[in-house]
Amino acid sequence: MIEIFPTPEQQAPKGVQSPGVIPHSLIPDTGFIPLSYVVHVSQQRCSRCGSEQSNSLAYAHNSIPARAGQRAVSHLVPVDRFRYNVPVKVLRLAPRTTPACAECVQENMDLSHLPKPETTEEYRRHIAAFQQPQQKQPPRPVKASPLPKKPTIDDLI
Asked: Which residues, including other chains, have CB under 8 Å from residue 145's CB and lie 6 or more apart?
């Protein structure tokens, strides 16, 4: 078995490569060498307190070869640091709204001012849709194709 991320005790001294252990510096965190990095930058607004927060997630991007005639598949793997001098693409995602942010969320949030699901019309319609008996439609008759005409002696002359 080859240790992919050897512990410091398992690594050979600097400049010496021991058989069966791949040097940590040659292996990316993701298991492949990326073509580029992609950073997703997002903003969210808390509908409870109104605060806005920004967040970013970094990914290593690589393309996985596909079957013949098909496009390569893009592969994104989260990374905690940049390891290679490759292009970085920043994607700004659409802002989102969240019902409670990390600052105002509580262990036991009081939502008693909201209706119970059973009391809403939407809930009743949803339940009614599942309780209605499913009407089976009769199968459509299959029309048989006509048999080919058998050749006669007159057709052969």
From this structure: none
